[in-house]
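Example protein was shown:

_____
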Amino acid sequence: MRTVGVEEELLLVDPETGEPQALSSAVLARASRRGAEEDVFEKELHSQMLEFNTHPQSGMGELGAEIVRIRGEAARHAGEAGCAVAALATSPLPVRPSISMNRRYQWMAEQYGIATREQLVCGCHVHVSVDSDEEGVAVVDRIRPWLSVLTALSANSPFWQGRETDYSSYRSRVWQRWPSAGPTELFGSADRYHQRVADMVATGAILDEGMVYFDARLSARYPTVEVRVADVCLHADTALLIATLVRGLVETAARDREAGREPLDHSVSLLRLAGWRAARSGLTEDLLHPATMRRTPAETVVRALLEHVEDALADSGDLERARTSCAELLRHGNGSHVQREVWKRTGSLREVVTTCVQHTQA
């Protein structure tokens, strides 16, 4: 069974006003006092963010329980520092982000200017173990068309600087401002992948391998494929669904490689359009079907994803849970839908944030 780990980025907010608070150092200081068991928290680019990493897990039940537990710990540490955590991929309220003070982040601020200052966005990254770089690159090549569906399922960022964006995942559009972000062409081998990364670093436009922000990449730290297209999910159950589907995609791709099935050769241009459509529509309008790259109802596309990974999910015991979670999202809406419903009902972005604080800890 392939192991899975999740990285989530949370927004630190004032529990009364909903405004982002630059208190990550204070929250991390409180977490560090709890001992080695709480070393899952990390500083992020902006001081209004807090990141945590789960441990690798083989069972999805254990992974889901860990996400819930660490979210609870994050809420406790934040409360001690005078703020709250919200699983929001962008801040609905206006904010002037504060860049964390270290050499790496200062280099980014100098290199990328306003793009760095405006990158107060929170994502959900999923790591799935692979046997080798060759298998990992074969997986990266084969999962490319399906990644936009994960963006649609996780979409949780309809507001930006106090305004409705008309996007379900505006975070993904802001993320595309990094020069190395987005979908990739087919690599074909680990050697070609590593050569491409080396060439990118050699340009000087990025600092190192860690700044290769492909939608899916080989992790620079772990023997995993890392998928980076999802918004941080409002609900822990949705984060678990994204992790479940990513493991299903990785396992299906590895099996396709073993069976000699070639990856779909969609162009980067089409993949970018699929990502844009997913960010714009979420689950409320059409998406681009991963096989045909033509507009198709979102429910049909989600069903196609489940069918694509069906054997892998059945073998891991995750199929029925994934089907149920997808059906719930299609019926009741994702985080973006929840935020818009609160806004429609109250007309208050403060209420949007405070409601999402409650959902984050539920």
